[in-house]
Each structure stands twice: as structure tokens, then as C-alpha cells.
Amino acid sequence: MTKKVLLINKNAVLITGRLIPLLKSSEIECVSVEPDLEKITSEKDSADLFILLAGEFVNASKDLIASLKDVCLAAGKPLCVMGHDKELEAVEQIIPKNVITREFVRPIDINTLANELKTMLNSDESEKKKQLLLVDDDITFLKMMQNWLGTKYRVAAARSGPQALNYLAEHIVDLILLDYEMPLMDGPKVLEAVRSKSKTANIPVIFLTGKNDPESVRNVMSLKPASYLLKSMNKEEILQSLGSFFITH
Q1: 79 pairs with which residues across the strands?
Q2: 88 and 150 assigned to the same domain
Q3: Residue 26: left (phi > 0), alpha (psi -120 to 50), or beta?
Q4: How many structural domains comprise the chain?
Q5: pLDDT tens, 148-207?
Q6: Residues 6+ apart with CB under 8 A from 122
Q7: CATH number for 158
Q8: Model pLDDT for residues 90-128, shown as the tens digit of each residue
Q9: Burial code of 62-84, b = ≥16 C-beta within 10 A, e = fewer?
């Protein structure tokens, strides 16, 4: 299957003009787009890897760069950044370094870059990572969890129950991390819908919620989820709990 690279750049004609044919010779499609969120979003599902070619536009496009990070995390796609030292530092002020899959420091030999990208795309390392779906209406918490889990797992995100079900209709995941209280469709109703469909019935669901009073815990556990985690847990505790879950399941 042909792999696809999305190269986000502004007027980098020399690099794109040389990189695109080099990757094409290895059956890798490289599509160049301007730093425009609508254009990036339109390509996100078909791209296997994103490359941000940083330039002077970064400091004036902080919201766009932050949105690019969210797009990659939500889609579970690797994000690489290429630029000079100062440009990479500017990007790291917006995108946490642990979210960036790979940094390429300019100047870089274009053949070396093409070979590195081929290796990344042909590696099955990303395929070995478990795919998680986070479901939570708290956008701030959702972004934090994506940053925490993104280095170890492929992470997609949904901001509501209906959005989660739409995602599951087209994607396979290894685990759903589900909030209990949400508008439109709460966690129990989402769990019921997941279990009602043969395609998703066997996907394990862990409630990740702020509800920790005895009655709420009893209500949650009566639904027989795979586990129950609290939002008050720190990053290490959540990662350890998920790691233990996948070892035992």
C-alpha cells in the first residue's frame, strides 16, 4: 500500500521540489500544503505522517501550530518537524517535545531526509502501539491526556458520545477510556451502545472519571467495565495502570 507524507510548508519550493520525486520513486506520495488548518484537516485521514517545515511563519501562526498538534494526536499520526535550531525552538514552545516524533535539523541532505522518512514509514513500530480512544467533553483534560499517553500509545480523541460512536464505526481500537458524566450522551449510554454492536462489543472500556464517591463507584462498577481510573491520578499512575491492564489482557 502506498504511504503518504503531508509536508506543511510556506514557499519551500526547493525542498519540496526535490523531496517529492525522491519519495515517489519509493512509492511514497508526498503532498505539499500551505500552513492552513482547513487544508491540513482535509488531508489528515489519508496521510500516514506529517512534516512541519518550520520557518518565519511559526511565530505568527501559534494557533495553527497548536491545532496541527491536536490534529495529529487525535488521528494518532506521527508529527515530524524540520527547521533550523531557532525554528525548532520556536515550535517546541507550542508543541511539547515529547509529542514530536522526530526533529530534522537544517541544513540536511535531502537524500538523507528521504531515506529517514522511508525508514519511518516502512517501520512497523507504530503499528505495534496500542490504539486508544479517549472520550471526554472536557477539552483541556482531553488535550492533557493526549500529551501524556501519546508517546506510548496511538491516541484518538472524541469530545462526545456520538462523536466516539462515529469514530468507532470506521476505526478499530484496543481500548476506550470513557468519561462518566457528559452532555448529550453520558458514559453508561456510550458503553451500552458500544456493547450493542458486534463490531465493538468486545472492545474493553475503562472509565476515567472524576467521580470517586462510594455511590458513583458502585454505579460505575455495576456496568462491569474493564477497570475504573480517577482523573486525579498523575501521569505515572495512569500509564502504569494502562500498562498493567495490557499485560494482563
Answers
A1: 50
A2: no
A3: alpha
A4: 2
A5: 888 788 888 899 999 999 999 888 899 999 998 888 888 889 999 999 998 899 999 999
A6: 3
A7: 3.40.50.2300
A8: 999 998 877 788 888 888 888 888 888 888 887 655 456
A9: eebbeebbbbbbbbbbbbbbbbe
**What digits encode the pLDDT tens for the residues 21-59?**
888 888 889 889 999 899 998 888 889 899 999 988 888
| Of 238, 44, 50, residue with least CA distance to 145 | 238
* Co-location of 17 and 74 in the same domain: yes
DSSP line for 65-124: HHHHHHHHHHHT--EEEEE-HHHHHHHHTTS-GGG-SEEEESS--HHHHHHHHHHHHH-S
- Specify the pTM: 0.54
Give the residue from 125, 159, 193 where a domain finishes: 125
Spatial distance between the Cα atoms of 22 and 51, rounded to a whole number of angstroms: 16
Q: Give the containing element (helix H, strand E) for 217.
A: helix 214-221
